[in-house]
Amino acid sequence: MNSRERVKLALNHKEPDRIPFDLGGTVLTSMHHITYKRLREKLGLPPVEPRLMDINQQIVFIDDDLRALWPTDVTNVAPRSSATFHIEVNTTDDPDYDFFYDEFGIGWRKPKDSGFFFDMFRHPLAGPITRETIDNYPWPDPVDPARFEGLAEAAKAVADSGQAVVLGGLTAGFMEITAWMRGFADYYADLAGDPDLIGYLMDKVIDLKLQYWEKALPLVGDYVDVVQEADDFAGQFDLLFSPTTFRRLMNPRQKYLFGRIHELTNAKLFFHSCGAVRKVIPDLIENGVDILNPVQISATGMDPYELKREYGKDLTFWGGGVDTQRVLGVGTPQQVRDDVRRNIDALAKDGGFVFAAVHNIQANVPPENVIAMVEALREYGNY
After folding, report:
1. Separation between Cα atoms, residue 258 and residue 183, nearest integer Å
2. Cβ–Cβ under 8 Å, residues 279 and 300
3. Residues near 179 by Cβ (< 8 Å), separated by ≥ 6?
C-alpha cells in the first residue's frame, strides 16, 4: 500500500495498514525553521538553508533526506499564495524590524533580535470606508499566470510517486483577510454595527478565492486528493464571536464557497480552524467540510474522545496527534509519547485520522520531543 492509497482509505473512514503521517504536507503541519535546524543536527543530517513555506509563520518545506528517514504520506503542491507571492522582505530601512507588505497591502514585521514570526502592523482598509472604497482598492490578481506555473506537472509527479497531494489556497480565510484588511477594532465594530459593509468586504474576498479555485482545480484534475481552506475564528475558550453572528453573516458565505469548491473537484475539503470550534462543527459539516484541522485538543470542548464519538463518521481529524500547547514544547519525551498514545487511542479507530501535531511545531520544541513523537507514532500507529 502506498501513501496515496493509505491516505485515501483514511479519508473514506476505513483503516489502512497504519495511520497516515503528515509532516510538512500543509502550511499548518510543518515546523518552525529554528526547530528544523536543531532537529536536523540532532539526527545527524547535514545543515541546510531552510526553504520557507510560509514567511509569516517562518515554517519550512521538509527536505527529502528527512522525509526518507521519516516517511510521510502527504506532499503540498501549493502554488504561489499570499504567504509567499510578490513578497520582498525589507531588512535595511528599520533598525528594529524586518518588514514587508503582502499582495493585499497588509503590513507585516518581525523583530530583528529574537523575533519568531511576522505580525501585522498595517491594516490597509482601517478607518471609515464605503463600498466604493472596497471596489476601488487595488486587489491582487488571483489568476496571475505566475501563480500556476508548473502546478499541473507538480501535482502529477507527486501523485505518480505514490504520495497524497494537498493543494493549497490563495490566501487565509475570508473572515481572516477581512479582519486583517479592516483591523480588528473596525472589524468587530462592523460585525455589530455595519454587517452589510463587512459582508460586502467578505464577498469581495470570496470572489477572489473563487477565481483562484476555478483556475487551479481544473489544472490539477484528479491528481489532487485534498484541497485546503482555513479560517481562524475561535480562541482558547470559545468562538471569537457568537454562534448567532457566525450563522447570520459567515455561515451562508462559507457554505457557498465550499459548495463551489466541491462542484469543481472530487478532492476532500480540508478546513483549518484553531481553538474551540465545537459549537459550530455541525455547521462546518453541513457546509461541506470533510477534514478538520488542527484539532486543538487543549481548547474548551475539544476532547478528542468526544469529537470522535460525535463527529467521527462525518469528519476526518487531521491533527490532534500531540498537544503542541501543553506537551510538545514543555513536556518530557515520555510525556510526549504518552500524549501520542492517548490521542491515537481516541482518534484512530475506523480510520478518519491523519496524524500530525496540533498545528505547526514551534521554535520552543526540543528535537528530542519531535523524535519522541515520531517514535510513538511508529509504535502505536499500526492498525
Report:
1. 25
2. no
3. 187
The pLDDT tens digits for 74-97 are: 999 976 666 667 788 888 999 999
Is the Cβ–Cβ distance between 48 and 40 less than 8 Å?
yes
- Element of type H or E holding 119: strand 119-122
Residue type, 17: D
At 170-186, the pLDDT tens digits run 999 999 999 999 999 99
Pairing of strands 97-101, 107-111: antiparallel
Class of domain 3-81+127-380: alpha beta
151 Cβ contact list (under 8 Å, min separation 6): 77, 79, 216, 219, 220
Cell of 179: 479582519
Tell me the HSE value of 42 on the side-chain side, using a 13 A CA sphere.
Answer: 14
Neighbours of 358 (CB within 10 A): 28
Q: Which of 335, 321, 323, 325 is nearest to 381 (CA)?
A: 321
Give one DSSP letter per residue of 153-187, joined into a string.
Answer: HHHHHHHHTT-EEEE--SSS-HHHHHHHHH-HHHH
List, in sequence order, every beta strand (DSSP E) within the chain.
52-54, 59-60, 74-76, 97-101, 107-111, 119-122, 164-167, 226-230, 268-272, 291-293, 316-318, 353-354
For the entire predicted model, the pTM comes to 0.96
Helix (H) or strand (E) holding 104: none
Residue 340's CB is within 10 A of a number of other CB atoms, namely: 27
Mean pLDDT score across all residues of the chain: 96
Look up residue 108 and give its three cell numbers: 507585516
Give a three-class secondary structure readout of 255-313.
HHHHHHHHHHCCCEEEEECCCCCHHHHHHHHHCCCCEEECCCCCCCCCCHHHHHHHHCC
Q: Which helix (H) or strand (E) holds 136?
A: none
Check if the beta carbon of residue 71 is closer than 8 Å to that of residue 20: no
| DSSP secondary structure code for residue 58 in this structure | T
How many of the other CB atoms lie within 10 Å of CB of 222? 12
DSSP state of 249: I
